[in-house]
Amino acid sequence: MPPRDKTAAKAKTSLPRLDGRRERALAPGGIVAGIDEAGRGPLAGPVVCAAVVFHGPVPRGLADSKLLEPARREELYGLVLERAHVAVASAGPDEIDRHNIRGATLRAMCRALLALPCAPSLALVDGRDVPPGLTCEGRAIVGGDASIAAIAAASIVAKVMRDRIMTRLDAAHPAYGFARHMGYSTPEHMAALAAHGPCPAHRRSFAPVRAALPEAERLAVEARLERARMEKAGAQADLLLL
Predict the structure, then answer these.
(1) What string of DSSP letters covers 132-163?
(2) Which DSSP category does 27 fall into?
(3) How many angstroms separate the CA atoms of 222 and 157, rounded?
(4) What's the predicted TM-score (pTM) here?
(5) What is residue 119's DSSP assignment?
């Protein structure tokens, strides 16, 4: 199920105050970027990553985008665009299927950081992974979207942008209801997959989508995934021998 509506109502009165002080303390005098993503879990559509560097006052009410009502998220999105440098990058289903969702997400995070009009000295990334190849020092912050203003802003930008993409995909592929569930594995979405099979927006490396493919295509996808797993295992074995 999409995570956006489950917790928003109960969280409205308990959101922490994020004002940017924590990131400034981590890099005194430096330029700090927050990076986050939206859309790792869905069966369809891109994963969208955003990088944010504030140059103006931090808007009040920033929080993990999943804890915000849609109208408030849109309002904060506009304020973030006014008060911060923002860059967005995405990885579509083809890239996700080639590099797996984790690899595709990390690649898109690097592209988002590189697209900023400034050069951060520190990138704070929500989660446990620091993307390889960042152009500056990177630190992973578990729960960063609830504790770091720039990361919370990035989560809002990524979520709003991805929802808009899914709404456009809904117009292109109306049988699946993308505008309602944003590509997550809801009962409605699973029923549409069973009835119509996957469309080009679906991630064929994800098991529920793969199971809905015609047999020949499913076998080809599974063979490609197995080759990728073997190549990764071989690369890891080579590293152990160095």
Answers:
(1) TT-SSEEEEETTGGGT-HHHHHHHHHHHHHHH
(2) S
(3) 34
(4) 0.89
(5) -
Give me the pLDDT at residue 1, please. Answer: 46
pLDDT of residue 213: 95
Q: Are 178 and 163 in contact (CB under 8 A)?
A: no
Neighbours of 3 (CB within 10 A): 16
Which stretches in the chain have pLDDT values below 50?
1, 3-4, 7, 9-11, 13
What is the β-pairing status of strands 47-54 and 122-126?
A: unpaired
Residue found under tokens 């500056």: 136
Q: Which helix (H) or strand (E) holds 33?
A: strand 32-38
- DSSP state string for 44-112: BS-EEEEEEEE-SPPPTT---GGGS-HHHHHHHHHHHHHHEEEEEEEE-HHHHHHHHHHHHHHHHHHHH
Report phi then psi at 44, rounded to 5: -145, 160
| Predicted pLDDT of residue 232 | 73
| pLDDT reported for residue 171 | 98
